[in-house]
Write a structure and sequence with these properties.
five-stranded mixed beta sheet, 2 helices, 7% helix, single chain
Length: 328
């Protein structure tokens, strides 16, 4: 009788994992700039050369181009509809933009080299948030919104300001979360260690690092912080660059990006060899205690985002393409 019960439990666990696991079988759209692929039905050619981020909102696809600093927008079939932004330091412009996030009906963009956040509404510039006097905030890179709290990570060479800045929806400074200094008190942080931010479907903020194996989970009240060691699942590499006193790519565990997944799972894109090609997408349970599935692609993955209402996952690849997969 005990054997039968164990067998039933194993079947249920297997079925649960199969139900939660996903695949990248159905590619429905690719946005890029490779003219040789124009004949493909699912490929739309545009002027994007270096996509940094992609957001789906109100049946528009927004793609942030880090090369010419425009935000391009398309309909859901990939038809080009317009662009806004552009390179420069003017009120409407961007200089080395890095990341985007919808906050209510506004699109917030981290304007890295201008040291500010640019806010657009209905494709029109609304206002800027400058960081010159905001608690020594360095240049903003990643942004995430959770229940009215806007989380911003930044690039800095100072170990004293490596935390996460929290603003309200009006852009007013609220506090800083010094997760980096608490986790790695003896680590000399360089720009390589910039935190990646991802708001999860279970109302948590995930903070991940590119060359460090620890993931930080912060609840929506910013009171509970949990640390998860992922070194069991990551592949460690050794840097070949031994030059001293320079900003070199460090040795360590490499993951490029993080995302929510189907049914409250968490997705991590990690490298699988010494060349640091991050083409493994690992799918975990919501508390990161169990790996459910792993997908290996034939391209490097820079960024990804899951949209449950549209059953889509969006990937930005090392080929400078934005791929849209239908997930069921």
């Amino acid at each position: 009788m005990k054997i039968k019960r164990v067998f039933v439990v194993l079947i249920l666990l297997f079925c649960c994992n199969v139900a939660n696991s996903m695949t990248f079988d159905k590619l429905i759209l690719t946005l890029g700039s490779d003219d040789e692929k124009i004949h493909k039905d699912n490929y739309k050619v545009c002027d994007i050369f270096k996509p940094k981020d992609a957001v789906i909102y109100n049946n528009y696809i927004y793609v942030l181009d880090g090369n010419d600093c425009f935000i391009y927008y398309f309909d859901m079939q990939g038809n080009f509809k317009g662009k806004f932004g552009g390179m420069g330091g003017g009120p409407k412009e961007l200089y080395s933009p890095e990341n985007m996030e919808m906050v209510g009906e506004d699109l917030w963009v981290t304007d890295f080299n201008n040291n500010r956040i640019q806010i657009y509404h209905n494709h029109i510039h609304k206002r800027s948030i400058k960081f010159r006097d905001m608690s020594k905030l360095a240049r903003p890179r990643e942004i995430g919104e959770l229940d009215g709290n806007i989380f911003i990570s930044s690039v800095t060479i100072s170990p004293k300001i490596t935390g996460i800045t929290v603003l309200n929806e009006k852009g007013v400074f609220k506090r800083r979360i010094m997760v980096s200094s608490m986790l790695f008190p003896n680590t000399r942080f360089t720009p390589w260690f910039t935190a990646k931010l991802q708001v999860l479907s279970n109302k948590q903020l995930l903070v991940g690092y590119k060359y460090l194996p620890i993931i930080v989970l912060i609840d929506k009240d910013i009171n509970k912080i949990r640390y998860v060691d992922m070194s069991e699942y990551y592949t460690k590499h050794e840097s070949k660059d031994k030059v001293k006193n320079k900003f070199i790519v460090p040795s360590g565990y490499t993951a490029t990006t993080f995302s929510s997944g189907p049914k409250n799972t968490i997705l991590i894109a990690a490298c699988n060899n010494s060349k640091r090609r991050c083409n493994r997408v690992m799918q975990f349970s919501s508390d990161l205690s169990k790996k459910i599935n792993e997908i290996v692609t034939d391209y490097h993955i820079w960024d990804m985002e899951y949209y449950p209402k549209k059953d889509l996952i969006v990937l930005i690849t090392g080929d400078r393409e934005v791929k849209f997969y239908e997930i069921h």
